[in-house]
Amino acid sequence: MTMQSPFTPSTSGTPACSDHLPVRAGLGLKPQHFTEILATCPDLGFFEIHAENYLVAGGPFHHALRRIRDHYPLSIHGVGLSIGADGPLDVAHLDRLAALLDRYQPQSFSEHLAWSTHGGLFFNDLLPLPYELSTLNRVCDHIDQTQEHLQRRILLENPATYLEFAASTLDEATFITEIIRRTGCGLLLDVNNAYISGVNHHRDPQAYIAALPLAAVEEIHLAGFAEDLDAAGAPLLIDTHGAPIAATVWELYAFTLDRLGPTPTLIERDNNIPSLAVLIAEARYAEELIRQSQRDQTEVAA
């Protein structure tokens, strides 16, 4: 496989906007907040939805999203494509994704470096992969197929993991780097996932981020985690998206912006969802750090 040129989104359906998310902070769009968002139009960079919540033709979610999309850039994040599965991709699922993307013309579409299907069964989780050559070839083939089917460049998200495979012959950053080199896809850098995996596997999250192909990053995710202990009594972090962003993750985010420069950033909250005002406050803090990164770049250029 060789690196492909980025795909250009189609121009039918929703009126076309910029092909990139604004360099601001956005929020995951939750039905609890539909009414308030439509009534107040808060000053936010963009919203992101989970694709699988919108794969039906109609209903109240689409009614709200259509109106919100008129005012905000949109990112669509897939959680069910199972790019790392050992079987073929679900072409019917790809068809439904293509219809959704054509309908709303998002500035970004992303999926996970994970698998959730096997032998015709679907597991409601994002499961880890062994990082070795046969897996690498399969993931690249699936990304090539996805980008060809959707006719757009996708972003691949780094996972949060709780175990590793003895069969792995590559570290995760090298594995992701090779995927991006071969397929031309972009990277969605989940800073929270990088921190969780670093703590769980006793590795330096900063060194992991520095080893990634940062030029391919087009979006950042930030979220909260839960703390537990593993069977040996060591700290175990769980990617719950159900808590405020931890101070250590904010610090890692600032480190990341120092190396990336200003980057569109999503605040994720999928459980224990607070008021819209609480989430907007986190988005405002992310934008403070983005602006600081812009100032730092300006000073370096001067």
Shape: globular
Element-level helix/strand string: EHEHEHEEEHEHEHHEEEHEH
Helical residue percent? 25-40%
Second CATH tier, the architecture: Alpha-Beta Barrel
Q: Averaging pLDDT over every residue, what do you get?
A: 91
Structure explained in plain terms:
- The chain is α/β, with parallel strands linked by helices and 302 residues long.
- It starts with 24 loop residues before the first strand and ends with a helix.
- It has nine helices and twelve strands.
- It is globular, with a radius of gyration of 19 Å.
- It has one domain: Alpha-Beta Barrel (TIM Barrel), CATH 3.20.20.
- Helix 1 runs parallel beside helix 2 and helix 6 packs across helix 7.
Question: How do you describe this structure in short?
Answer:
39% of the residues lie in helices and 18% in strands. With 302 residues, the protein is an alpha/beta fold. Strand 10 (226-229) and strand 11 form a beta hairpin.
SSE layout and pairings?
Layout: E1 25-28, H1 34-40, E2 47-50, H2 60-69, E3 74-77, H3 91-104, E4 108-112, E5 115-118, E6 121-127, H4 133-150, E7 155-157, H5 172-183, E8 186-190, H6 191-200, H7 205-211, E9 217-222, E10 226-229, E11 235-238, H8 247-260, E12 265-267, H9 276-301
Parallel strand pairs: 1-2, 1-12, 2-3, 3-4, 4-7, 7-8, 8-9, 9-12
Antiparallel strand pairs: 5-6, 10-11
